[in-house]
Design goal:
This protein has 349 residues and is an alpha+beta fold. The chain is 41% helix and 11% strand. Strands 1, 2, 3, 4, 5, 6 and 7 form a seven-stranded mixed sheet that branches. The chain binds a DNA duplex (11 and 11 nucleotides) through residues 45-57, 88-94, 97, 124-130, 133, 137, 145, 147-150, 165-166, 188-189, 192-193, 195-196, 200-202, 232, 260-264, 297-301, 333-335.
DNA sequence: AACCCGGGGAC
DNA sequence: GTCCCAGGGTT
């Protein structure tokens, strides 16, 4: 038990000297002076950071907090504005749940985030990790965070041979045993910083690791073999066609995708469902011009090859048209933006 | 427990 | 190309 207290104390000492700066983070010296972070900021950053790197999140976090400075502002926002602001960040269910959660916090919690793990866990888009992160970082509660970084650190520190994801309960027990009652918020950020900057997936910088002398993996020399993982399935390739239509007045023919499923709730170019073979499904009865080049894109679990068709459409063409001055490619998910970028080189205006 | 769900950077 | 990322929801 003496050893465990040493571990957290040594990591906090390292964090005091090496904490990375982030727009949502309260630095350790400020925290020691009683400054606490805004729970709204911590919550928003943690939602954005799910499966997403700090570098990618920064500009989105600044944009969201500029557009919606408080959870009340966000709760009052229009759905389509939030989805457009999220475009490009990926995993769009996060944006829908972000808005849902803001509205629940305002309606059921008086606009104040609950501070305990159990209450946070009930909110949309908040799972075990995010509940622990918000309760520890924003409210200094002794909750163990277990993300990809901590899984890697724990599995190396103790040479856990059980492969992920089956090892998660075991890793959670190890992480909980290390979480201190003193400065749990800084400790949570410290152990994740350690995984992100020193205990990296490939070629970890063990020579400068504050836990070097405690690490079983380091002692055995096989730290890079952890964590063990169950092999993943190969990605299939799907095919489809995207129709980029522009009306005589410059407006674009788009469609709002269904709330559930791939790119849910986002704008996109019309077309049939993607499959083993590309299917024609022109959204207007006119002469569509196929382009020589395809759009290629990779999603979480498949590769996609999209053929592009372009056409000029008459003013009486039915459908969801967005005026040229209201159309911004940055409102589109990346694959749809790729389609536009390719099509526009072939369009006259 | 297994599957679905983006996008980008490092290698 | 592969792997990874401050994971959650659904079935």
């Amino acid at each position: 038990m003496r050893d465990i207290a040493d571990l957290s104390a040594e990591l906090l000492e390292w964090y005091d000297a090496n904490a990375r700066e982030m727009p949502w983070r309260t630095a350790p010296h400020a925290r020691k002076n009683g400054v606490m972070p805004d729970p709204y900021h911590i919550w928003m950053s943690e939602i954005m950071l799910q499966q997403t790197t700090v570098a990618a999140v920064k500009e989105y976090f600044l944009k969201f907090t500029r557009l919606w400075p408080t959870v009340q502002d966000l709760a009052n926002a229009a759905d389509e504005d939030v989805m457009a602001a999220w475009a490009g960040l990926g995993y769009y269910a996060r944006a829908r749940n972000l808005l849902k959660c803001a509205r629940v916090v305002v309606a059921d919690h008086g606009g104040t985030f609950p501070n305990d793990h159990a209450a946070l866990l009930k909110l949309p888009g908040i799972g075990p990790y995010t509940a622990a992160a918000v309760s520890s970082i924003a409210f200094d509660q002794a909750q163990a965070v277990l993300d990809g970084n901590v899984e890697r650190v724990m599995s190396r520190l103790y040479r856990v041979d059980t492969p992920l994801p089956a090892a998660k309960p075991e890793l959670m027990d190890l992480a909980s045993a290390l979480t201190p009652d003193l400065r749990p918020g800084d400790y949570a950020q410290a152990v994740m910083d350690l995984g992100a900057t020193i205990c990296t997936p490939k070629s970890p910088a063990c020579g400068i690791c504050p836990w070097m002398k405690h690490c079983d993996g380091r002692k055995a020399g096989d730290q890079a073999d952890y964590p063990k993982k169950t092999p993943k399935k190969p990605k299939p390739t799907r095919h489809g066609i995207a129709y980029v239509g522009q009306r005589e007045d410059g407006a674009f023919l788009l469609e709002r995708r269904p709330e559930k499923g791939l790119l849910g709730g986002m704008l996109g170019w019309p077309g049939a469902e993607w499959g083993d073979v590309a299917q024609e499904a022109p959204p207007a009865d006119t002469n569509w011009t196929p382009l020589n080049e395809d759009v290629r894109h990779t999603f979480t679990h498949f590769h996609l090859i999209l053929q592009i068709r372009v056409a000029q459409l008459p003013m009486d063409c039915p459908g969801l048209f967005i005026a040229k001055q209201d159309f911004s490619p940055s409102d589109l998910p990346t694959v749809m933006r790729k389609c536009f970028n390719l099509a526009k080189t072939y369009m006259s205006h």
